[in-house]
Amino acid sequence: MSNFPEKLTATVTARLSEPAIAIQFLDSAESILATNDTSNLPEFAYDAVADQTHRVGRGMIQKYRNRLLLIAHSHCAVHCRYCFRRHFDYAQDTFQEEDIGFLCAHLDAHPEIDEVILSGGDPLMLSNQRLDTLIGVLYQRAGVKRIRLHSRVVTVLSRRINTRFLELCRHYKSKLVIVNHINHVAEIDAAAEQAIGHLRALGVMLLNQSVLLRGVNDSAATLNQLSDKLFTLGVMPYYLNLL
């Protein structure tokens, strides 16, 4: 087994009989990077998406001229077996509230940045109070047009979309974009639909990103089924990533 431990929520555990769920979350001999021996993988890289190459401050990554990404939290509600940040040094490189001054200085120095992405880990593992502080700082900046939250909690920990979080979304909705991470229609249960419905009722823009995964969604029919379900719920299929 790998050195990236399984981490599941009760919601995910209850659906492990579905192969599309089990493949994503259960460690196995077939899991990618299930061993530390990468000698037969010449293209392997621990920093697969070049986060460190584009680091501009603690927990701050800028790969594109007008976008800044913050590693807002070091933890997720679950561990995806295909995680490309499993080797990320969260202990040393996670954005903290004390870094807000540096963040503002960086935005002052780069007025071309009009979009800030809160990632991680999962930014919704932050408390509502800390989210309010961070989003509030970004929201007040005229140059920041969009604040994106990339999260998996809607389908794996739907109770996180609680009353206080919905209040934050209502307050900041003119700039807020929530990018869900859903790979298969089996992930969307009644609780997830309800959480999405609450967000939609506020007028929050909802997008989805998926990762193309063998045995999960590697067919046009499966992807079409997911897209159709997302459209029905008011979520725009936006990214399909190949890792």
TrEMBL record:
Signal peptide: none annotated. GO terms for molecular function: 4 iron, 4 sulfur cluster binding; isomerase activity; metal ion binding. The keyword Oxidoreductase does not apply. It holds the Pfam family Fer4_12. Its cofactor is pyridoxal 5'-phosphate; [4Fe-4S] cluster. InterPro entries: Aldolase_TIM, Lys_aminomutase/Glu_NH3_mut, rSAM, rSAM_sf. This is Lysyl-lysine 2,3-aminomutase. Residues 62-243 form the Radical SAM core domain.
